[in-house]
Amino acid sequence: MAKVFLNGQPVEHPHEVHEHISPMSTYNGVIGALFVLTGLTFAVSFADLGPASLTVAMVVAFVKATLVVAYFMHLKYDDKFHLFVFLGTIIFVGIFFGFTMFDLKSRDALNDEQETFVRWKEQTNEGKGLPVGVDNVPERRAKILAEIEAHGGGHGGGEHSAGHGGGEHKAEAKAEHKAAAH
Amino acid sequence: MSTAVQSQDPHPAVEPSYLVSKRGLMSWLVTVDHKRLGLMYLASVMFFFLIAGILAIVLRTELFTPDQDFMSAQTYNQVFTLHGAIMVFLFIIPSVPAALGNFLLPLMLGAKDVAFPRLNLLSFYVYSVAAVFLIVAILTSGLDTGWTFYTPYSTSTGTAVITATAGVFIAGFSSILTGLNFVVTVHKMRAPGMNWNRMPLFVWAIYSTAVIQVLATPVLAITLLLLIVERSLGIGIFDPAMGGDPVLFQHFFWFYSHPAVYIMILPGFGIISEIITVHSRKHIFGYKAIALSSVAIAVISFVVWGHHLFVSGQSELAGVLFSFLTFAVGVPTAIKVFSWVATLYGGSIQYNTACWYGMAFLWTFTVGGLTGLPLSTLAIDVHLHDTYFVVAHFHYVMVGGTVVAFIGGLHHWWPKMTGRMFNETAGKWGCLLVFVGFNVTFMTQFFLGHQGMPRRYYAYLPEYQVMHQVSTIGSYILALGLLWTLIYLLHSLWKGDKAPSNPWGAVTLEWQTQSPPIEHNFHETPHIHGSPYDFPEIDKSAGALHH
Amino acid sequence: MSNDHAHAPAHVDDDEHNPHLAHHFDTMGQQTASAKLGMWLFLATEILMFSGLFLAYFILRMFYPEMVLEAHEHLSKWAGGINTVVLLSSSYTMALGVRSIQLGDAKKLRLMLVLTMLCGCIFMVVKYFEYSAKFEHGMLPGKFYSAHLHGYEIEGLPHIFFGVYFLMTGLHGVHVVIGLAIMLWMFIRAGRGEFSAKNYVAIENTGLYWHLVDLVWIFLFPLLYLVK
Lengths: 182, 547, 228
Prior knowledge:
The complex is a heterotrimer. Chain B is mainly alpha-helical. Chain B has 15 helices and no strands. Chain B has a single domain, classed as Up-down Bundle (Cytochrome C Oxidase, Chain A). In chain B, helix 3 runs parallel beside helix 6 and helix 9 packs antiparallel against helix 10. The radius of gyration of chain B is 23 Å and the shape is globular. Chain C has one domain: Four Helix Bundle (Hemerythrin (Met), subunit A) (Up-down Bundle), CATH 1.20.120.80. In chain C, 73% of the residues lie in helices and 0% in strands. In chain C, helix 2 runs parallel beside helix 7, helix 4 runs antiparallel to helix 5 and helix 5 runs antiparallel to helix 6. The N terminus of chain C is likely disordered. Chains A and C meet through strand 1, helix 1, helix 2, helix 3 and helix 4 of A and helix 1, helix 2, helix 4, helix 5 and helix 7 of C. Chain C: It is found in: Cell membrane; Membrane. Chain C: Belongs to the cytochrome c oxidase subunit 3 family. Chain C: Pfam families: COX3.
């Protein structure tokens, strides 16, 4: 005879799986809301909100995340213990963030006061910035400069538009590079 | 008489035990039986215990005289790093949960297996791969960072940091999978009637451990990933010369590694709870207090990591906060120690080997715990930090606590695991040697540290010599005791008497099936109607339920 | 206790004959609940793992606010935005896939899995173009950073920002690829008729994993691409 229990307790109808099945309208509504919120946060990013922009973006992200977790991941209808696991995890992430940020923030203040420092700071290193990236590796720097030289100087030159047509560009550059090598 | 468990073994030995139910090497290599996996883990962790133990003896021998004897400073650095890294990641962390826990958890819950048997097998192989990585690191250029891999040294040293951290990273996954498996097992696999208040305390301890493993280990994974990337790509987040913050690494690392200290000790608490109550034949004092204090320790362990950073440049404000929180750990820990002592009081104590180890634990762990208090005091820690006092403290907790509990548990469950009884007299001599050797080795180090001997030095000032020599001799006694224990336990496998199904008269479920258990643990799913510690009336003259 | 066996329903035998029930479980309900709890715990480990990188990001922001703002201007909002829409859509189709199999429609499940995989692939293609642009401009992590040689001047220490950018999106990308592999496997298993309205926990867990990948992106997108 099958033993019918779960969590150490007898279960009345173990052979029946009682899962909540959401109607299509729920899924359609949620995805609609997610798209609207994405559009919203995208649009807001063009407005200059200053420091408030982080808060706005995070609030929107939290709302979106809640929708996904509650409806797509069925947490709203699921075993409450799963909700406990999920929220518990968030609390431990909070502990991790909270204590670490607390130390770093209070340490910065004290270091400024006592004029000691652990890491590099612009204010205390006026005029002598840290070498950045390849500047620390002279051979690689020279190699990259030579490559740039080989196909006609740097592109962009302070131009601040990102992500333009990467793929073709790269292929082109490769071809040029090959040609130069031969 | 309120017998807690009905399901006695009605037809003993009609089915072959798990050891012989299937034969051949392959039946072991691809087994999903939690008992076999437990034994495989046991053999593996014992192997690494031996390796790392030999390294420890080598270190102590070098320290016999103040000057350099047979090791250069560089070799010494490598040897203590390997001693630490192997002991922590390949021995202590998997020792009790993966070896004893795997074997006992489903048995104690009345289940046929853990919730995910194949995942269990996978995590054993993941552990093996991790071990291979660490061995490769040793055989190539070694490792000299200390087991903590502090930046920026770990990003600049020429030794095999990436191989070793990759090994630890992989070992972390094994730990996560085991923890996840155990949490689900405890939640979903309990036998009928086994509610939370009827679970053995070992299960509570393993459960709390598993929760820490699940919550803390992922952060270790990302920390080591950042370290590997820092070393290979130089992203600079931990490197002050590139604009990063070295103390940040310590935050990341100790967010895992401080809870990991409790991954190491909590299962030991669980073993002691079982040993003390069974061998004093008395209901455990404060069942709920012990059970919930395990959970409390698991939670508090996440908010105290900053006490490793008292002198690392952490802000004083954070230091004060972490110091205060660290004292809070003392509360649930003391609850446990007092409950064990209260359990012994008025009990009908059977002084056999497992019980001796339980008593030894009470002494060594209490010393280890109490010396944690001066270390968590901010001002005193500035004096004691990075001295032998710290070394002595954590060896008292990890060796005196976890390892002593582990060996005690091994003796307690040896008849169940192997179906053989070991020689009690030999066992008591072994315990005595371990206890004396351990205390001579590490008690001395408290004084050394207090007088200013810094840790991790291969040479020292002549005035410390006498105490270093005492400590070294103590370590030889300890090694002798462990070797002796290994010999008589192995001997019992061939020459030991056949074990009855319940030699100690315990009430928990693992003793209600035959020794060693059958492949599916129980002939019939047990039903539980009471506490795991309701011992039948004690017959003091006849030594209770021995036969 | 005498009534332990009293309430076992007559058709409990269904479970005993169910080929999907593993030997150590007693009922399908127990097996399903275990698998789902296991998945949620796994998701907890994933969240904690990613949290380390998010913390690194926030600390970087705290240390060098101007640098982070200047460097993030070099990420393409449009690529990030398109990927957000693509990933949200894939979450939607995945959720519908789970719903289909809850209703016992294995055919529709396979269709939804294909659509989800398609979205995942689009995501990776967009990612590829994004990464290529970054490589082209020398906006690389740590000691490979050479954007200033390519004519893109960013004040401060942008090599750390791009280190964190590549780690976060890279680890996320690895999760997308793993998700695609799992869905392919589920697609094959669904084709073999392994799933039904009574046995679909594997699909549900795949869905949970995929939604988590989506969740991580929901936070990555504004933090890396949008926030000023």
